[in-house]
Amino acid sequence: MERAQAGEITPEMKQVAQKEGVEAEFVRRGVAEGTIVILHNPRHGSAAPLGVGAGLRVKVSASVGLAKEGDSVEGELAKVRAALEAGTDALMDLSVAGDMDGARRAILAAAPVPVGTLPAYQALAEAREKRGAAVRMEVEELFEVIERQAADGVDFLALHCATTWQTMEAAKKQRRVDYLVSHGGSHLMGWMIYHRKENPLYEHFDRVLDICRRYDVVLSLADGWRPGCLADSLDAAQVQELVVLGELVARARQAKVQVMVKGPGHVPLHHLRATVQLGKELCRGAPYFVFGPVVTDVAPGYDHITAAIGGALAAWAGAEFICYVTAAEHLGLPDVCQVREGVVAARIAAHAADVARDPRAARWDLAISRARKALDWERQIAMALDPQQAGKMRRERSRGSRDTCAMCGRYCAMKVVGEYLGREQGVC
Predict the structure, then answer these.
(1) Which of 95, 116, 293, 398 lies at a CB distance of 3.0 to 4.6 Å from 156, suitable for a disulfide?
(2) Residue ranges, CATH 3.20.20.540, the chain
(3) How wide is the angle at C-alpha 386 spanned by C-alphas 410 and 362, nearest 5°?
(4) What is the pLDDT of residues 348-364, one digit of tens each?
C-alpha cells in the first residue's frame, strides 16, 4: 500500500491488472485508496497475486482444515485439490485440532492461490491442550501464533478485532435469537468474560498492524457478531461492530496495511443491499468478503444453494469476495464432493454478479450461447463453468445424437427454427 501511494506500480499490480483486463494504474490507484487489496505474502512463493476489490472480478474462497483429532492432513489436501479443480480463487485453513502447523504448511505448499487463516483458532486450541481450557490462553501466545502464521507465508489473516465489550453490551440488550455463531468470536468473548478484559486484538491492534505490515499480509477484519439466523439480521450488535470495524479500517490504512472486511452470514433478501451498502459505507469502501450469505434458514442440506442466491445478490450490491458454503453447513463437515460442489455454486454466484457489474463478463455467456445455437457440444462443454459435470451429463443423456439436444431429440427447437430461418432468410 505504501508503494502504491508513492506512485509505484509493482510487479504484483501488473500481474493483477493483466489477469483482470484492466490498466495497471487502475490497480495501483485502488490499492493506494484501499478499495483494492492484493493477496500475496512474498513468503508464499508458489501463489500468484490475487486482486480483490472495486472494479475487479468477484472472487471465491473455499475453506478446509483439521476439525478434530484423527483428521489427516492428506484428507484436507484432497479437499484442497477438489477446490482448486473446481476453480476456487483462494483457500482458508480453519484448522482447530491436530497438527495445525503441519496442515497449514502443507496447504501453503500445495496451493497456487492465496491462503488465509484465523490465527485465534490455533492459539485457543493450543491453550486448551496446554492448560485444559481455551480461556486460559495468554495474550503473548495469541500474537506468537499470528506472527508464526504470517512467517509461514499466509496471505491474509482473519481476526476478530472489533468484537469488543461495547459490541457485547449491544448484543446483551438486543436479546438475539441465536446469540453467537462465530467460532473465533465466541471463544474470544469467552476469554474476555473469563478475564474481565478487553479483546486483546482490539486493545493491541497496533501489534496486529505491525505484523501485517512487516510480512505484507492483508488484514481481513472478521465479524464476530455476524447474524446466525435471519431474525438477527441488522441488529444492534451487528451494526455496532460495523462501526468499530470502520474505525479499524481507518487505522489500518494510516499504518499502510491492506485491509478488507468480512460480512455476514444469514441475511434475508430484503436486507441484502442495505447490509452491503452499510458495510461499504461504514468501512470506507474496503473490499467486502461475505460468508454466503445464506438467505433462508429452512434448507439444511442445501445451503450451497441458499448461499449462492445470497452471494449473487450481495456481490451485485457491491461485495467483492464470496466465501463458499457447502451442503453440509449446519449439519456436519463437508466431504470432498461437497467442497467441489460448494466452490462451483459460489462461482456461479460470482459470475452472475459479474455479468450485472461489468458488461465484459457477459462475453463468456454470449460465446457459449452461440455454441449452443450451433449445436456445438464440444465447445459448449469446454466453455462451461464446470466442464467435468457438463461433459458427464452430456455423455450419459445425449441419446447418442450429436446434432440435437438431449431434451427434445429430433424436435430440437434450435435445429428446427434454425433450419427454417436459414431457408427463409439466408442466415445460419
Answers:
(1) 116
(2) 43-48+57-357
(3) 85
(4) 999 999 999 999 999 99
**What local confidence, expressed as pLDDT, does residue 409 receive?**
64
Extract the C-alpha cell encoding 124: 485457543
What are 8's three cell numbers? 509505484
Supply the pTM of this predicted model: 0.94
**Looking at per-residue confidence, does 343 or 420 come out higher?**
343
Q: In a 3-state reduction of DSSP, which class is residue 51?
A: strand
Residues 291-318 pLDDT 10s:
999 999 999 999 999 999 999 999 999 9
Q: Which CATH architecture has domain 43-48+57-357?
A: Alpha-Beta Barrel (3.20)
Contacts of 358 (CB under 8 A, 6+ apart): 57
186: cell is: 465466541
Q: CA-to-CA distance for 134 and 175, rounded, in angstroms?
A: 26
Q: Is the pLDDT of residue 155 over 70?
A: yes
Q: Read off φ and ψ for residue 69, nearest 5 degrees.
A: -60, 135
CA separation, residue 149 to residues 108, 110, 209, 313, 319 (Å): 11, 16, 14, 33, 27
In angstroms, the first-to-last Cα distance of the chain is 52
**Nine-digit cell at 37?**
487489496
**Residues belonging to the chain:** 428
- The pLDDT value recorded for residue 181 is 87
Give dist(CA 340, CA 97) in Å, integer: 23
Classify burial at 77, counting beta carbons within 10 Å of its beta carbon; exposed 0-12, middle 13-18, buried 19 or more.
middle
118 alpha carbon, distance to own chain's centre: 13
